[in-house]
Amino acid sequence: MPEPFAASRRHPRNSLATKIIFFVFLSTFLTALVVSGMAIESTHRFLREAIDRRYPALLQHSADQVEAWLAAGQAGAEACAGAPALRGLSGPLRSGADGPEVRKALDLAASGHPLANLRGLALLHPTGAVAATWGDAPALPADLARDLGALTQSSLQWLRSPSGDAHVLASAPVRAADGGVAAVLVSLLRMEDLGQILAGDGEGTRTRILLVGSDGREVATAGRDAPCSAGEGSNRPAACDEAAGAFEEVRLPPAPPPGRAVSDYQKPGGERVIGAARPLAGLDWTLVAEEPFDQAFQPVLSVVTRIFITDILIVLLFSFLAYKITAAIVQPIEALSDGARQVSRGELELEIPVTRGHDEIGLLTRTFNDMTRKLRKNQVEIEAAIHQLTVQKRELEQANEQLSQLSITDGLTKLHNHRFFQDHLTREIKRVQRSGDPLSMLLVDIDDFKRLNDRLGHAAGDELLTRIARIMDESMRASDLLARYGGEEFVILAANTDLTGAATLGEKVREAVSEKSFLLDETMRLEKVTVSVGVAQYKGDRKAFFQAADRALYRAKAQGKNCVRAEGDSEA
């Protein structure tokens, strides 16, 4: 054994292996500290950014759900108010009548429409007096009843009862034959649905979602079933009096700092939370999402713990490896061997230190480094090629999607075209054959379009087609399909709609078009345009379905245009 090596064995603290191990330990420890600090800061910043992205999206989604719930309640009230049973009693209702006949008409109107989110109905005379009720009818304050009695348009209102419960009222006028208001229908919405809606958007227990009224108190909270909103006074459950205080005052989150979407603040009880707020359209409510600060940033503490443990393991591991390698072989060939092992694992970001000599070891080291540089270059080129292929694939998919959309869209009106309509009709016929639901078709033709087109020119004709298509599209229900059938003719497929309902829809479309005036050329003269509508209901034969709608449209044209005719109407 050489003497220097033997001396190092006698004095371990002065040995090369000890110095290398100490150097490895110190450098790894310092590197771990720096990387840990950067990782913790990056994790904290990433979590902040994630929260700033998540809260607005969560509030937007919850707002959409609540606004859809309010719209559904308003639609239910309007549907009941427009029921034939109530419109048929417009005369007695306007004169202040009540009694069994009015209650029966209200029951018929309620039973004829889906009222999943309505708890009860109250029918008011124009004076504000209650004519009849259905279900858990709302208890209206006298001044509010007088205001609702003068109602001429549909509206949403909310109020808080003396017990602290919030109520949402959807009101709609019952129209008489002359268009006046015969009565007002007020519906009480199911407040317990709000708690379920908010609970579904709260991501389990992480974030608390609540609605706050203009009085600064809770209206609804995620998970709260609001069982006490059904009654007042003697009809109110005893447990509700104890729970009334649960609708506490809420401190709204302050405005977030610039560039942030979420605020840090303390609740009245001293708890530190993060939160954000968003006002709701339609009612003076505010949607609030909040979460305890410690709970929101719990992942940072978890990351710190894992990083600390990982750092200790890395330092110990590298120190042990340095000791083993240095104690076994201290020659430069070990570095090459270790480098070869790293390359075999795919770790190409390495450079073997080049010795000063020009012997075989130096040549081998330089050759090894040249090899790794070429491997890294090849790897970069391969990754760039893969990325390019991925981009081209994405662009091709987008182009295919655009072509698919163009194949089913009318280029002028942007409505669905004849091809899409035929495919959709095939699917609807199969569906109604299984379910037995009604299916109706409306053929809509612009009256005297050829005369207007010849007089004003094709550009004006195209503009007219586009604008009428937009008017009809705005008149459609979400479940209806509007398509351009050809030329100046359009077709509407009304699912779950019988002949009477389709005729009503056709009249709505006809009125929407006839009420508009069109400026189509440079003469600045307003043109009035009308449409004729033919209506038919599917009875098992697709061809007969089209023929019935076409005959109805022909009768509408023959009987003076600007009208709606349905199959089976009198020829006169």
What report would you give on this structure?
With 572 residues, the protein is an alpha+beta fold. Among the domains are: 82-190, PAS domain (Beta-Lactamase), CATH 3.30.450.20; 331-397, HAMP domain in histidine kinase (Helicase, Ruva Protein, domain 3, Orthogonal Bundle); 418-566, Reverse transcriptase/Diguanylate cyclase domain (Alpha-Beta Plaits, 2-Layer Sandwich), CATH 3.30.70.270. It has 17 helices and 17 strands. The strands form 4 sheets. It has a 5-stranded antiparallel sheet with strand order 2-1-5-4-3, sandwiched between helices. A 5-stranded antiparallel sheet has the order 7-6-10-9-8. Strands 12-13-11-16-17 form a 5-stranded mixed sheet, sandwiched between helices. Helix 2 (16-81) runs antiparallel to helix 7 (192-200), helix 11 runs parallel beside helix 12 (360-407) and helix 15 crosses helix 16. The protein is flat, with a radius of gyration of 38 Å. The N and C termini lie far apart (125 Å). The model is unreliable at 1-10 and 229-245 (pLDDT under 50).
